[in-house]
Amino acid sequence: MASVNLSIRKNPKGTAKILLNFNYGRKKRFRHSTKYTLSDAKQWDKRNRKVKISDQIPNADEINNELISLLNYAEKLASSYLSREDHLNNDIIKRDLDKFYNRNKVNTSKNTGLIDYFDWYIDYYSKHPRPKTNSVYGKGTLKTLKSSKKRIEEFQRHYGFIEFNDVNLDLHSELFKFLRDTKEYSLNYTGVVIKNLIVIMNDAYERDFHQNLDFKKSGFTVTREDVDNVYLNESEIDTIKNLNVDDVSLNINDHPEIFNKHDTPPTKDALIRVKDWFIIGCKTGLRYGDLSSLTSKNLETEYDKNTKEEYQIIKVETSKTKGLVLIPTSNDVRQVLEKNKGEFPKKISSQKFNKFIKLICKEAKIVEEFEGKPKYLSVASHTCRRSFCTNAYKSGMDTLDIMHISGHKSEKTFYKYIKASSKDRLNKIRHQKFFE
Fold first, then answer.
1. 3-state DSSP call for residue 394?
2. Do residues 164 and 114 lie in contact, with contact meaning Cβ atoms separated by under 8 Å?
3. What region holds the Tyr recombinase domain (predicted)?
4. Burial of 383 (0-12, 13-18, 19+ CB in 10 A)
């Protein structure tokens, strides 16, 4: 019977190609080259025949899952060949193995529409790494893509069936008017839909589904406007930290601006957990999905050779970028951990968090006017991250170090994100040694 296994083939440069070996008779072997190459042969686990899990390969689990799928597919082929091993050859095996990679290809008929391709794109990249990032889409990005697809489906019912060649400046104008005037979506959300339309068009173009480049024209713009999102300064965060939740009314009727009559009333325990998570979020800059998933397994101890002191860090792979982030624990974070016997607080849903943190901020007297309403009504889970970035910047922390934690890819994006004024930047600059 034919047998299959995985191995690597080293080359003089030290890299290694991952191979599938298909043995189907005495001295008969087909070596199938997979799409994966390791930068160092030592990254291969010889005993278990898989990629080693390490910081150097953040998507090792995804690669191994793909290799397992390929191996299972090949084993099924081997079983199907039982009755015709005498007639097997490398060409037949190669043809059948190639079907593994072709099984996820979208229908290439001339009638393939934009929405069909959108569906395929979301499904494919929820399971397979994207070429640019070498990682699959996270839940948040997939949710945004699905939302954009839904908006374009609604537009298609108004506009008519959309093929790739229909996507031009006229369609851009019609889509913009539909989203803004008919549906009354915000300028930023409209921009997100158009941006994802461009993503789909670009992917389809690279796969030779069309030759239409109108989506690359300067007039095919992604609209956005600056939104004055709220952040809390260190003094406000301290006020929250020192709030005694025993003094907070748990009756939702006392807070009609926050709760509706169908909301679950908060408990004292829930408010304590929300307060603790908020403090941790303001001191780590993590997105709420990553923040609320932290456990004691994310805590590690490091040793400083210069000071000969041990210190604690949070080590986490972020869901959006799949990058590994190391964050020193602040005194505030360590106090929360100590209170919880070395553990992070129990997880709480983002929906409850966003309601309960408003109540906490209200009781902490964070009530100054912000965009025509009390500031506490604008506080939510994303406020933690923005507060971290802004306060870290104002404290003098290096911008690139903050970006490493926050995951911002460009300084331009980072400076738009933080709530720092020109005066704040001036104060930071003037304290540099250069100006002494």
1. helix
2. yes
3. 254-431
4. buried
DSSP result, 250-288: --GGG-TTT--TTSPPP-HHHHHHHHHHHHHHHHH---H
Do 115 and 152 touch, CB atoms closer than 8 A?
A: yes
Cβ neighbourhood burial of 27 (10 Å; 0-12, 13-18, 19+): exposed
**pLDDT in single tens digits along all 436 residues of the chain:** 678 899 998 887 788 889 899 888 777 888 888 878 888 888 898 888 999 888 888 888 888 888 998 888 888 888 777 655 556 778 778 877 877 765 555 554 544 679 989 999 999 888 888 877 777 888 889 999 999 999 999 998 878 788 898 999 999 999 998 998 888 888 889 999 999 999 999 998 888 888 999 999 999 988 776 655 789 999 999 999 999 999 999 999 999 999 988 888 999 999 999 999 999 999 999 999 899 999 999 999 999 888 889 999 999 998 877 788 999 999 999 999 999 999 999 999 988 999 999 999 999 999 999 888 999 999 999 999 999 999 999 998 999 999 989 888 888 888 878 877 777 778 878 877 777 7
Report the candidate in 2, 220, 235, 200 with the shortest Cα–Cα distance to residue 106: 200
- DSSP letters for 6-69: EEEEE-TTS-EEEEEEEEEETTEEEEEEEEEEESSGGGEETTTTEEPPBTTBTTHHHHHHHHHH
Cα–Cα distance measured from residue 143 to residue 350, given in angstroms and rounded to the nearest whole number: 15
How does DSSP assign 174-215, residue by residue?
A: HHHHIIIIIS---HHHHHHHHHHHHHHHHHHHHTTS----GG
324 DSSP β-pair partners: 317
Tell me how far the alpha carbon of residue 17 is from its chain's centroid. 28
CA 127 – CA 110 distance, rounded (Å): 26
Task: Print the SS3 string covering 62-81.
Answer: HHHHHHHHHHHHHHHHHHHC
Q: Which residues touch 298 (CB under 8 Å, ≥6 apart)?
A: 314, 315, 316, 344
Q: Which residues contact 105 (CB under 8 A, 6 or more apart)?
A: none
Per DSSP, the three-state class of 109 is: coil
pTM: 0.59
